[in-house]
Amino acid sequence: MNLPPKVTDRAFEQLAAIGAGNQGQALRVAVEGGGCSGFQYEIKLDEPAEDDLILEGSGEKVVVDAVSLPFLAGATIDYTQELIGARFVIDNPNASSSCGCGTSFSM
Questions:
Q1: How crowded is residue 29: how many other Cβ atoms within 10 Å of its Cβ?
Q2: Where is the chain membrane-spanning (predicted)?
Q3: Smallest Cα–Cα separation from 14: which of 90, 87, 98?
Q4: Per-residue pLDDT tens over the stretch 12-24
C-alpha cells in the first residue's frame, strides 16, 4: 500500500497566511509529463474536485488528483523561504533524480 503524501505545518501555515481556504481554494499538487527530467510538478491554488485526495490542517487543504497520487506516495509537501525566494517544495522519495530548480524529476 502506498503512503499518502504528508504536508508540513509550515505549508499549512503559509496557505492560511495567504487566505486560500477563505477563498474556497486549496493548494493543488499535481504531476505532469515534461520538464527537463521527464516529470514536473504543478503547484497552484485551485478548487478541490470530487475525486481528489484532500489533506487538511490548520483549516486549509492540499489536494492531489488520483493520477498524480502514485507519483507522490510518501512525499512531503513543505514551504521554504531562502535567499532565492519562497516557495512550496516537494521532497519525493520516488524521484531517482531531479533538476536543480526542484520542479522536475525522473523515476
A1: 27
A2: none
A3: 87
A4: 999 999 988 888 8
Confidence bin at 69 (pLDDT 50/70/90)? very high
What does the angle CA 72 – CA 76 – CA 79 come to, to the nearest 5 degrees? 125
Q: What is the pTM of this model?
A: 0.85
Q: Assign domain 6-106 to its CATH architecture.
A: Sandwich (2.60)
* Segments making up each domain of the chain, as ranges: 6-106
CA gap 19, 92 in Å, rounded: 26
Residues 62-99 as b or e (16 or more Cβ within 10 Å = b): bbbbeebbebbeebebbbeeeeeeeebbbebebbeebe
Count of residues making up the chain: 107
